[in-house]
């Protein structure tokens, strides 16, 4: 019996040692320069296990179930807020984040609505949700005055009926699509009132027959290759598509516009689960990302703005000088943010979204 107990203790010790030698990160797909992952391993001697997900809902299921096995995860702001309330994260130890002084106060002021005092998370990237177009195809179908910078493009059934011929993708993200539909009809995009939320359903159902796919990443290559002509998606993804098309010299011109009616401003936050196997390694990873040059390398690769003010001197002009990535003051004023739906309202939203997607 004693020998068996020693063996069990040895196994636990070995498992703990193995976990201490590795850091497990769970991030969005297509969201980092992979050279940074190698650099982290070389600088720290830790093995980095890097997995990806494609929706906040997938991440949230893991976080609320507990024992995810990850040391660092990257929820968007509204989901982060709900997960903090559920006790899913541990507070950051700022004594282990020597690069925290690089954080941008302008962004921190906004992320504080999801994470008071920014106690549980750091901003990784931020951006807007808007309209990506294949300029040539859209103008060919709708004319030179096509409303490429307006929600009319995607929510007016007359436009969508014509655009279905060249392909339209929407995000599979009710927390993005429903606020946009509400904004389109002049309602509060952050409403939690079920009667107001219900007004979004007929707007989306009217154009549902013309949407080829609901997906959170496939539109990048589809736009770049000319397989679709419109995507309602995330700014950086569409700008990646723009640059892939330019590099391929395939004759596809992709443009991104934050809707003139107003666009959602979102934030992706890095946080440490309350039961992270290696919180020490997690802080090392966060501090690595907070390094100005590392953060700039990530932004230069994915074409998203970040919450690190010190990184800006290292950003390429295509990033820092592009108002679609770093909006001017007037555009910033026109951006809106949203807050998490209470559980009861979330169930209503989920049912609505399932109904819209299925077209029933």
Give a written overview of the molecule:
By secondary structure, the protein is an alpha/beta fold. The chain is built from 18 helices and eleven strands. The relative contact order is 0.18. Helix 2 (34-44) links the parallel strand 1 and strand 2 (47-53). It has helices spanning 2-20, 34-44, 56-65, 77-85, 105-111, 135-142, 152-155, 157-163, 174-184, 194-197, 200-207, 219-225, 235-248, 279-290, 292-302, 317-320, 329-333, 343-358; strands at 22-28, 47-53, 72-73, 121-134, 168-170, 213-214, 230-234, 254-257, 263-271, 305-306, 335-336.
Short précis:
The chain has 360 residues and is an alpha/beta fold. It has helices at 2-20, 34-44, 56-65, 77-85, 105-111, 135-142, 152-155, 157-163, 174-184, 194-197, 200-207, 219-225, 235-248, 279-290, 292-302, 317-320, 329-333, 343-358; strands at residues 22-28, 47-53, 72-73, 121-134, 168-170, 213-214, 230-234, 254-257, 263-271, 305-306, 335-336. Strands 4, 5, 6, 7, 8, 9, 10 and 11 form an eight-stranded mixed β-sheet that branches.
List the helices and strands and how they pair.
Elements: H1 2-20, E1 22-28, H2 34-44, E2 47-53, H3 56-65, E3 72-73, H4 77-85, H5 105-111, E4 121-134, H6 135-142, H7 152-155, H8 157-163, E5 168-170, H9 174-184, H10 194-197, H11 200-207, E6 213-214, H12 219-225, E7 230-234, H13 235-248, E8 254-257, E9 263-271, H14 279-290, H15 292-302, E10 305-306, H16 317-320, H17 329-333, E11 335-336, H18 343-358
Parallel strand pairs: 1-2, 1-3, 5-6, 5-7, 9-11
Antiparallel strand pairs: 4-7, 4-8, 4-9, 4-10
Helix pairs in contact: 9-11, 12-13
């Amino acid at each position: 019996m004693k020998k068996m107990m020693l063996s069990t203790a040895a196994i636990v010790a070995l498992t703990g040692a193995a976990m201490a030698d590795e850091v497990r990160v769970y991030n969005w797909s297509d969201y980092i320069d992979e050279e940074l992952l190698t650099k982290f391993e070389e600088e720290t001697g830790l093995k980095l296990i890097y997995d990806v997900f494609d929706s906040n809902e997938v991440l949230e299921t893991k976080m609320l179930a507990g024992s995810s096995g990850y040391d660092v995860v990257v929820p968007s702001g509204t989901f982060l807020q709900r997960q903090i309330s559920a006790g899913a994260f541990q507070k950051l130890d700022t004594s282990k984040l020597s690069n925290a002084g690089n954080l941008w106060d302008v962004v921190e002021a906004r992320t504080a609505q999801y994470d008071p005092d920014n106690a549980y998370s750091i901003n990784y990237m931020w951006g807007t949700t808007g309209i990506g177009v294949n300029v040539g195809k859209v103008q060919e179908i709708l004319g030179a005055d096509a409303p490429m910078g307006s929600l009319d493009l995607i929510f007016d059934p007359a436009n969508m009926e014509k655009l279905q011929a060249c392909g339209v993708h929407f995000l599979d993200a009710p927390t993005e699509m429903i606020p946009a539909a509400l904004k389109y009809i002049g309602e509060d995009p952050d409403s939690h009132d079920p009667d107001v939320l219900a007004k979004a359903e007929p707007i989306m159902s009217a154009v549902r027959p013309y949407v080829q796919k609901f997906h959170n990443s496939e539109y990048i290559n589809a736009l770049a290759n000319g397989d679709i002509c419109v995507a309602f998606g995330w700014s950086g993804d569409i700008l990646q598509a723009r640059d892939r098309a330019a590099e391929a010299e395939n004759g596809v011109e992709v443009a991104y516009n934050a809707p003139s009616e107003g666009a959602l401003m979102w934030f992706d936050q890095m946080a440490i689960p309350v039961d992270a196997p290696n919180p020490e390694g997690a802080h090392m990873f966060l501090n690595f990302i907070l390094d100005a040059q590392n953060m700039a390398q990530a932004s230069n690769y994915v074409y998203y703005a970040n919450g690190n003010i010190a990184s800006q001197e290292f950003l390429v002009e295509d990033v820092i000088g592009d108002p679609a990535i770093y909006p001017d003051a007037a555009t910033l004023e026109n951006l809106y943010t949203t807050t998490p739906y209470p559980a009861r309202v979330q169930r209503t939203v989920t049912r609505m979204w399932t109904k819209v997607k299925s077209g029933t």
